[in-house]
Design brief:
There is one protein chain. A hairpin with a 5-residue loop joins strand 6 and strand 7. It is built from 3 helices and 7 strands, in the order E-E-H-H-E-E-E-H-E-E. 7% of the residues are buried. The protein has 126 residues and is of the alpha+beta class. The radius of gyration is 17 Å and the shape is elongated. The strands form 3 sheets. Strands 5-7-6 form a 3-stranded antiparallel beta sheet, with helices on both faces. Strands 1-2 form a two-stranded antiparallel sheet. Strands 3-4 form a two-stranded antiparallel sheet. The chain has one domain.
C-alpha cells in the first residue's frame, strides 16, 4: 500500500511499497511540468518567472514553481528506526535546496536518489 502525507507548508512525503516507484515519480514530475507549462505565458516561460509586487509594494522577480522529489530507499536493516529515515530524508532535502538546478533521478552522496522537475522554455525552432 502506498501513502501520501503532509509534513507542513509545501513539504509532503510519499511511502511507496510498489516496485514501480521510480516510474511513478517520473510520471508525477512530467505531469507537473506539463500542467504548469500550460498555465504560463510564453514570456513567463522564456523569462523563467514573473514580476509581482511584494508585501511592501516593491516589484520582485519570482521564479516559477518547481517540484523536487527526494527518495530514500528503506531496505530491511538499513536504518535502526524512523528517526534515521527522517534524518536521511532531511539530508536529501537539504542537498536539493543547495543545488536548485534540476537533477534527473541522480544518486546523491548519501546513496539516496533525488529528482527535480523544472519547466523549461519552449525551444525556438521554426
Amino acid at each position: 500500500m502506498d501513502f501520501v502525507g503532509h509534513i507542513g507548508g509545501d513539504d509532503f512525503f510519499m511511502l511507496f511499497q510498489s516496485p514501480d516507484w521510480e516510474q511513478r515519480c517520473r510520471k508525477i514530475l512530467a505531469a507537473f511540468d506539463s500542467n504548469l507549462a500550460g498555465m504560463l505565458s510564453g514570456k513567463i516561460l522564456a523569462d523563467g518567472g514573473y514580476e509581482a509586487e511584494d508585501r511592501r509594494g516593491n516589484m520582485e522577480f519570482h521564479p516559477f514553481p518547481a517540484l523536487s522529489i527526494g527518495v530514500v530507499q528503506v531496505a530491511p536493516g538499513r536504518f535502526a528506526g524512523h528517526y534515521e529515515v527522517s534524518t536521511a530524508a532531511m539530508e536529501v532535502k537539504k542537498w536539493q535546496n543547495a543545488h536548485p538546478v534540476p537533477a534527473s533521478m541522480s544518486i546523491s552522496a548519501a546513496t539516496c536518489r533525488s529528482a527535480s522537475s523544472h519547466v523549461r522554455p519552449p525551444s525556438n525552432s521554426s
